[in-house]
């Protein structure tokens, strides 16, 4: 790599004694609710972020009080599968020991607990351990929670694909014993006995994300991931994967060296090659990724800097294999099928739409209590989806009416919810996200209600489009793969993008920058009016906006995201 000065995060990782730092000392320090120096960053590798409530930050500062430091804890849940017992354990902890009393289903198929005070951190890790869970590597410069297409009805491949998601997650986990020592009080190991054969002792240059997807569903949004495995079947059996490398959605306002990027096809691999290829793609990024500038450190920039062919050749060399030509596949959808479906296994599955994945009782919608009641009697498991919803999976015929009654009793089934609302997603944003520039989760209900009105006004309430709001250009809400996306700029102000597609294979283009939602909704109103009368049969809004020239499509974001290239 270049001779540029390494970023301070590199010093922090290399001096951390394989992620231990002085976290244990900080835990004993009662003078602050936070973590000091490097530990602030190091706890991320153990699945936690230090946060404070931004709604009360100014007030506390006026009173000369330290911000109310807490941590957000994100568990590791490959493929998003969690048992009712695990759910109940987390749910009880959330009620009694967190600032907000809620859990949050994330769009990477896991649960976050916001507002855990310092003295509750070790207890929560011990609780997780007793439930067979952990939060290792769900944040930090490592491979994160591995996604897997969640709807069990889709095909008989799900079970096999899920097993691969689990294996990949385990294979790429940090090998350090630090998590067990710091949080579970396990005996200290001699550092000499430990090594990180895949990740290296300075870990990766930046976060790394992996998804396993089962076409035609693209619920995991493969193009948001550094590495994706597309399941390929023959006669109903999984025979291998197409590999995609270098997807990612984040950018920084005003810095055109940052941009969203679709992943590149590398080719087909057999099942036996999967773990070696995963490790090789990770190790090339480990060795070639930018460790000087964290803004340009994700795999997508490494792929663009060295070129797809060079990156692919190096993976082949390291994994001692050759990619076969890409096998044909196509995506048709990304949303969850809300409601009951019968799986190929004869079991029933109920997908519940959970607004922004927030598990909290609110007036007329006691989702937290309802989910807990179901967990008390459910014999199958729960599957968290990349759309922030929950599937009550594996319900036997004789239990179906009991689960259905509970879901109705607690208003978890809402037939009045529009399909537009179900196609909408927002990131967490305020009050917990320290990087938030504009509201997202909290503003989505109002914006969605307005969009519903617009659709009704134009007589097209039966249509919908993929709509996403994200509180800043980091893009957690995946607006950069939406048909219509809002990206936060400042309080109440957003950049307005259109032109992505339903399948999630096209990046939308900026149409209006730094505007209020009123101005953006007015503009959208005009476009929807045209869509209502000019659309070809079943033409999606994103495709329509490109066909009629409202926006020029983004063909290769690396070169034409900021400027249209004719
Ligand atoms: Fe994210 C940082 C929430 C999915 C790109 N993301 C954050 C942090 C941790 C803020 C921070 O660094 O202090 C947010 C915590 C908010 C809170 O209070 O909970 C946060 N991200 C989320 C979640 C919870 C959004 C949600 O509403 O579901 C998702 C958690 C996923 C998980 O379970 O692991 C989440 N984040 C994403 C996605 C979407 C995805 O992966 O499919 C992206 C865009 C895809 C990508 O990575 O390119 C995303 N998050 C980021 C980035 C920009 C990364 C980059 O390449 O520059 C940051 C900031 C950073 O890393 O510096 C970030
Ligand atoms: Fe926070 Fe920005 Fe991610 Fe939203 S997109 S959760 S505001 S970092």
From TrEMBL:
Keyword field: 4Fe-4S, Amino-acid biosynthesis, Cysteine biosynthesis, Heme, Iron, Iron-sulfur, Metal-binding, NADP, Oxidoreductase
MF GO annotations: sulfite reductase (NADPH) activity
Enzymatic class: oxidoreductase
Binding residues annotated for siroheme, in chain numbering: 476
Binding site for [4Fe-4S] cluster: 427, 433, 472, 476
Pathway note: Sulfur metabolism; hydrogen sulfide biosynthesis; hydrogen sulfide from sulfite (NADPH route): step 1/1
Coiled-coil residue spans: none
Catalysed reaction equations from the record: hydrogen sulfide + 3 NADP(+) + 3 H2O = sulfite + 3 NADPH + 4 H(+)
Function: Component of the sulfite reductase complex that catalyzes the 6-electron reduction of sulfite to sulfide. This is one of several activities required for the biosynthesis of L-cysteine from sulfate.
Subunit structure: Alpha(8)-beta(8). The alpha component is a flavoprotein, the beta component is a hemoprotein.
Name used for this protein in its record: Sulfite reductase [NADPH] hemoprotein beta-component
Classification lineage: Bacteria, Pseudomonadati, Pseudomonadota, Gammaproteobacteria, Vibrionales
